[in-house]
Amino acid sequence: MNERQRRDTGLWYDANYDESLVKERLDAEELTFELNRTAPQDAERRNALLKQLLGSLGEHVEILTPFFVDYGYNVSVGDWSFINHGAYLMDGASITIGSHVFIGPNFGAYTAQHPLLAQDRNRGLEIAHPIEIGDDVWIGADVKVLAGVSIGRGSVIGAGSLITRSIPEGVIAFGNPCRVIRELNEDDKIGDE
């Protein structure tokens, strides 16, 4: 089994010294470099680069630069979603972002975990666990999501949160570590004026 296969089956793998994985990350870095220096008005070129970079890109998606990924092909973004400036998606495992998701600036999604003991880290080992963000989620500025976390449909994550555990659907959650504050309800509706 090669290192990519080990990674994709959820095993510890050589993330730092395996030549094929290093090349894949360099290829993604080239594409993000091109994306990040493409003029904002050149929507056609930006969209073409994103389609080349990402595993799946929905319709009417807007991703502001700078934007960074490790591989790109493990990222899926649904229709009508928005990712603000400064996002970094560490996609050793899949990162799935649903439809109508709104993500604030300086977002981080980190699928990788490293060994606790230095001698294992020094071997270049890591393990990656998927991240999933459901439809209709709103994530505030400066939020970080750790490996293996899912955020349920329609939930709201407050700015500055560090999400270490999965969040259910339809709630407001924030903090470091992020925790559920309450369920969303009819009182949260904006009335007609």
Secondary-structure map with pairings?
Blueprint: H1 3-8, E1 13-14, H2 19-36, H3 43-53, E2 56-57, E3 62-63, E4 67-69, E5 75-77, E6 82-83, E7 87-90, E8 95-97, E9 102-103, E10 108-110, E11 112-113, H4 118-121, E12 125-128, E13 131-133, E14 138-139, E15 144-145, E16 150-151, E17 156-157, E18 162-163, E19 171-175, E20 178-183
Parallel strand pairs: 2-5, 3-6, 4-7, 5-8, 6-9, 7-10, 8-13, 9-14, 10-15, 13-16, 14-17, 15-18, 17-19
Antiparallel strand pairs: 1-12, 11-12, 19-20
Brief summary of the model shown:
The radius of gyration is 17 Å and the shape is globular.
* Record field, number of beta strands: 20
Instruction: Give the averaged pLDDT, no decimals.
Output: 97
Content of β-strand = 25-35%
Q: What is the strand arrangement across the widest sheet?
A: 3-6-9-14-17-19-20
User: What is the molecular shape?
Assistant: globular
Number of individual domains: 1
* CATH-defined topology: UDP N-Acetylglucosamine Acyltransferase, domain 1
- The CATH superfamily is identified as Hexapeptide repeat proteins
Structural class: alpha/beta
CATH uppermost class:
Mainly Beta
| CATH level-two architecture | 3 Solenoid
Low-confidence stretches: none
* Gyration radius, in Å: 17 Å
Distance between the termini: 62 Å
Helix percentage: 10-25%
H-E string: HEHHEEEEEEEEEEHEEEEEEEEE
Main β-sheet description? 7 strands, mixed
Q: With helices defined by DSSP (H or I, 4 residues minimum), what is the helix count?
A: 4
